[in-house]
Design a protein that fits this description.
Layout (H helix, E strand, L loop, with lengths): L1 H27 L5 E3 L3 E2 L11 E7 L7 E7 L16 E8 L25 E4 L14 E2 L2 E2 L1 H4 L18 E2 L5 E10 L6 E7 L4 H4 L1 E5 L9 H27 L1
Length: 250
């Protein structure tokens, strides 16, 4: 009977380990409906002082799913923009609206959907690399997160400059990414448009990778976490088997 108990215990723990690890892997590899966007540049420029923000519009109507997150990635081409903390795509503002406009001058008066949370809880930021000479942090960021008191992503108000008066945008860095988890789902059965502001009018939006998804963006668990969990589980199996062997010997 003791031998049977050992076998059952071992199989149960092995099954539990495999199930837990597979569960962790499955949660990380879950697929989502994702749509890469094509943008149209609006006429004119907007922004702060000086006003050098180009505005781009993407039509999200009838893409086939409700939107829960938006991702913006720098193209990592190294073209356009400046060096140091101003490297990469400079995002001035982002807005979702049911209204179609064609002039950049109208974007700030445009009625937008209240679905963005620009705090670190609602944004996922992966800083890109800086072109030399590098600064301690990318512009518009603090502690590795977007600082919306500087970036003011709810407004298209960026001062298109790299001097001490720079304000109103965030620099992603070369290859950097910014993700936004929306506070509620956005339905695409009626007209809906995404507006993005690019400080400096360098054409980086057209070359970037900007997409929408029906699922929130999650911070992936590092593979080391899975390895650590597996190691702890195997240790548990080892000590259980060892204990059972001692019981049999007794």
């Amino acid at each position: 009977m003791k031998k049977v108990s050992f076998s059952v215990t071992f199989k149960f723990l092995t099954f539990g380990l495999a199930t837990a690890v597979m569960g962790l892997m499955s949660s990380q590899s879950a697929t989502a409906a994702t749509f890469d966007l094509t943008f149209t540049k609006l006429s004119g420029l907007t922004g702060g002082t000086p006003a050098g923000t180009a505005v781009y519009r993407a039509d999200l109507s009838s893409i086939g799913f409700d939107i829960n997150s938006i991702s913006i990635a720098d193209s990592n081409s190294g073209l356009g923009g400046s060096s140091g903390k101003f490297s990469g795509f400079d995002l001035d503002g982002i807005k979702l609206s049911n209204t179609l406009i064609s002039s950049a001058a109208d974007v700030n008066s445009l009625s937008g959907l209240s679905v963005f949370n620009f705090s670190p809880a609602g944004t996922i930021f992966t800083p890109g690399t800086q072109r030399t000479p590098a600064d301690p942090a990318l512009f518009g960021t603090t502690g590795g997160s977007i600082d919306n008191s500087v970036a003011t992503l709810q407004n298209f108000d960026g001062n298109s400059t790299t001097d001490s008066s720079a304000f109103g945008f965030v620099s992603l860095g070369d290859g950097g990414k910014a993700g936004f988890n929306l506070t509620s789902s956005v339905f695409t059965t009626s007209p809906i448009y995404l507006y993005i502001g690019e400080v400096g009018d360098n054409g980086e939006v057209a070359n970037g990778q900007i997409s929408v998804s029906d699922k929130p963006i999650s911070v992936p668990e590092p593979s080391s976490s899975i390895a650590s969990f597996a190691a702890l589980s195997l240790m548990g199996i080892y000590f259980t088997v060892r204990g059972n062997k001692k019981t049999e010997a007794a």
